[in-house]
Amino acid sequence: MPKISKPRIRLEHRGGQLVPKNIRASAYEGGSNRKRMGGKGMSVAGPNTGISQSLGALQKRSRNAVRNNAYATGAKETYVSNLVGTGIRPQWQNKEIQELWETWVQECDADGVNCFYGLQGLAAGAQFEAGEVLGRFRYRRTSDGLSVPLQLQLIESEHLDPTYSAVTDRQLIKMGIEFNAIGKRSAYWLWQHHPHEYLAQQTNRRKRVPADDVIHLYRRTRPGQIRGVPELSSVIVRLYEIDEMQDALLARQKLAQLFAAFIKRKPDHDPEDEGPHFGLPADPYGESDDEGLTEFVPGALHYLEDGEEVQFSDPPDIGSHYSDWLRTELLAVARGAGITYEQLTNDLKGVNYSSIRAGLLEFRRRAEALQAHLIVHQWCRKIAAKWLDVAVVSGSINLPDYWTNRKKYLAIDWIAPKWAWVDPLKEVTADLLEVRAGFIPRSEAAGQRGWSLEQLDEEIQKSNQSADDHGLILDSDPRITQKNGALQKAIDILNNEEEEENAST
Questions:
Q1: By three-state DSSP, how is residue 160 classified?
Q2: What's the pLDDT at 290?
Q3: Tell me, what's a Pfam family for it (predicted)?
């Protein structure tokens, strides 16, 4: 009977693992372990493991980049000015609540520096720079003289230690956040003082703060993610490399500006003859250097010993390609920061109306999404709810049916600042045609300009009443005149005919 040999399975190293050599290739190249993709991107990490290990370093480097790199600083300013601007303002349905809110926004800062909308910008900037920011409600006495006995304190995310994790019988503390048995946030363990303020190091300790008194503003990019990362995380390396490249080019240019002469002795020169001391540089300042030729001095004459010569390295000159390289890097930085290249650099060379409009429309879609899901939902909505609760409980406002109709009172329209148009005439004409055709309601057109429809109608009514009181006929009032004034003439004719009929009767 013939002997049946079993097939031998040969192993080989692929991606740091032993796998069968004759294994069939993956149908997806990105999922293969061959040489092209072996060992690339195969680290396994949950949504929080990598953050807990890297958040401290990311925050430090991001803050340093914003402090010292002009592009990072500009990216942060663009982010804040477009997301918040002069402030995302609420339009309450109740006028009494609106008036009380307008009073409180001027006194809401626990530090006594900003108004509510200034705190919005400060929070958005901190979220961009560090990935997250905390707001803590501070309850005050009624004797403090505030319109509503509540203030808001902004806290940097370093107060929430990402390395602090613990497990108890009933609670789970993960990255400084305490969760209850059903996975709901129950408390935040905050450093009493900023951990990087050295004067407070000795007395600093963690303090448990109920989650109901804290607002955690961060952008969640993965399900289950509990902490945020800086918006510059994906481009931090590029920002530092841009700085290093610019420093290297500057050093090369400085070296090119140094001009020096090197003097050699003739072959038949007698070394005992009087003359300059070879081997030492001629110091233009009259000081001697016993260490010989160690550095170049502009305008100096360097004397060489017999057999000595000077050789210079010849690094490749990329000066002609530097602009293209820098633009490519800055395009990646702008994309990683979530803004356009023109916003990052203020470089408008080669930009036309169509291209700048297309870029801004794409950016505005992202900004509007962040305004709705980040600033309004995570920050403004929670503050407004807490503020109105405290206002009712403290007696600052009388709403007898509040607890029954709380959701109705908290149905707020948050109005973001209007966008500046690239070409106002074209944009306004397009909006006018859409409203007249019924494709969009007036409320949407008003909201795009930073108004609620109720506010807009009230202001128009006030303007019309003021014009009537002073006997003014405004060309902007469509009830009276068209653009060419034809309707106004018709009204005058009708009024004259009516007066004549009254006189004849």
A1: strand
A2: 46
A3: Phage_portal_2
- Per 3-state DSSP, what percentage of the chain is helix, strand, and coil (rounded to 5)? 45, 15, 45
Between CA 456 and CA 449 the distance in angstroms is: 10
Structure token digits, residue 278: 């070879």
Note whether 148 and 100 are within 8 A (CB): yes
Q: What is the structure's pLDDT at 250?
A: 83
Number of Cα atoms under 13 Å in the Cβ half of residue 267: 0
List, as one string, the DSSP characters of 240-263.
HHHHHHHHHHHHHHHHHT---EEE
Residue segments in the chain with a per-residue pLDDT below the cut of 50: 274, 278-282, 284-286, 288-290
Domain ranges of the chain: 1-42, 48-231+346-417, 249-303
- The pLDDT of residue 104: 97
pLDDT at residue number 357: 84
pTM for the complete prediction?
0.77
| CA atoms of 4 and 336, how far apart (whole Å) | 60
Q: How far is Cα of residue 1 from the mean position of the Cα atoms in its chain?
A: 78
> Please, where are the H alpha helices in 69-199?
70-83, 95-104, 116-130
| Helical packing angle, 70-83 and 236-256, nearest 10° | 140
3-state secondary structure of 20: strand
Residue ranges of E strands in 117-258: 132-139, 150-156, 166-167, 172-174, 177-179, 185-191, 206-210, 214-218
Place of tokens 């008036």: 99
Residue 482 contacts by C-beta under 8 Å, 6 or more apart in sequence?
Answer: 488
Looking at residue 175, its pLDDT comes to 94
